Amino acid sequence: MVAAGADLADEVGLGRLTMGLLAERLGVRTPSLYKHVGGQEDLVRRIAALASVQAADAVGTAVQGLAGRDALAAALHAFRTFVIDHPGRYASTTGMEPTGPDDPMALATQRLFDVFRAVLRGYGLEESDTTHALRMFRSICHGFATLEAGGGFKWSTDIDKSFEWLIAFIDRGMRAL
Q: DSSP states of 14-66 as a string?
């Protein structure tokens, strides 16, 4: 049911996802959904956990066996692709606060952070700077991919070329630290 909710969120947008719409999609009555989730907020939390696991898997697969700029490029491309291909489920991850350390959302998010931490190891970054670098990666990828997914790049310049420029810029900055 959560996977169906995630698919529906990707199709209609997270803001338009409702329990009624999901019940209609699944061919059941809305009250039947409450046997599986505690309501709309619980559904979105579960979609966020699923999305974080899926993003971690995509990025982890992309960076396997790579280091330095190659790992950085692979990670950022995989994350960008995930955001563009799954806009509704990705939207569920923004602003979602874990309820505690055992919250599936916290565990899934940690998995994604661990993959990006592995990318950072290729740059010899001080441990004290890791959080700053993770926030930078998330901000840059989030901004670029959500703008792209929303049709925010109207200029005729190749978007992929702009993304490659962005990767080169980050790589140079990381090496300069």
A: GGG--HHHHHHHHTS-HHHHTTT-SSHHHHHHHHHHHHHHHHHHHHHHHHTT-
Question: pTM for this one?
Answer: 0.93
Given this model, what pLDDT does residue 177 score?
84
CA–CA gap between residue 123 and residue 154 (Å, rounded):
34
What Å distances lie between residue 8 and 3, 95, 134, CA to CA?
9, 20, 29
Residues 72 and 171: beta-carbon distance below 8 Å: yes
Sign of the Cα torsion 20, 24, 30, 36 reads: negative
**């441990």: which residue's tokens?**
127
Residue range 27-78, pLDDT digits in tens: 999 999 999 999 999 999 999 999 999 999 999 999 999 999 999 999 999 9
